[in-house]
Design brief:
This protein is an alpha+beta fold. It is built from 7 helices and 6 strands, in the order ααααβαβαββββα. 30% of the residues are buried.
């Protein structure tokens, strides 16, 4: 990675940790903060993630492990609550670099994609629906809500990406580093026990 890409990645990492931005918006904001042209080549998400881990080790080593534990435990509550939809945890909480500013990202694999939304309605939960690009490039609905996390003493965003059951087949393929991009209830329980 060249010096410019490293500087962008480091600035983006700070924005991810301190402001809770996701990687894409953090990289673009880093360009503006650094006064670089919008056409400047951006670092990869892996390079930003590496800088996030370094930033956490330097500036958040005393608080981040407890915040991550609280977020993982709160994710487990939601996963157990939504067990019929085969939830899998992804994102920062699964990968281990989440702080209290990060949201919980769950992928639901449903026999009927509308069943998850009906379940939230049946539980009298308020949520918003948006459409985003899914893991296989197709549009998927995301049901977003706020949930109070007692261990952190604040509301946490919970985002439920709704997939068809067939999408589960390719959902656990490892990334370039050999890591699964998401984990099941049992996989999360192993992380929490470790």
């Amino acid at each position: 990675m060249n010096d410019t890409a490293l500087e962008i990645a480091a600035t983006a990492a700070r924005l991810v940790v301190e402001e809770g931005l996701s990687f894409g918006p953090a990289k673009h904001r880093a360009l503006k903060e650094l006064g670089l042209a919008s056409r400047t080549a951006l670092p990869s998400n892996e390079e930003v993630e590496s800088q996030v881990m370094d930033y956490i080790a330097l500036f958040c080593a005393d608080t981040q492990p407890g915040e991550l534990q609280a977020l993982r435990e709160h994710a487990l509550v939601w996963m157990e609550r939504l067990a019929p939809f085969r939830p899998h945890l992804g994102g920062a909480v699964w990968q281990g670099w989440a702080t209290r500013l990060c949201d919980i990202d769950l992928a639901l694999f449903c026999d009927d994609p509308k069943s998850a939304e009906i379940e939230l309605i049946n539980q009298n939960l308020r949520y918003e629906v948006q459409t985003v690009r899914g893991m296989h490039g197709e549009d998927v609905d995301v049901l977003s809500l706020h949930s109070f996390c007692p261990d952190l003493g604040e509301d946490i965003g919970v985002h439920l990406r709704v997939y068809d059951l067939d999408d589960l087949r390719g959902a656990l393929l490892p990334d370039a580093r050999g890591r699964s991009p998401r984990g099941s209830v049992s996989a999360l329980k192993q992380l929490l026990a470790g």
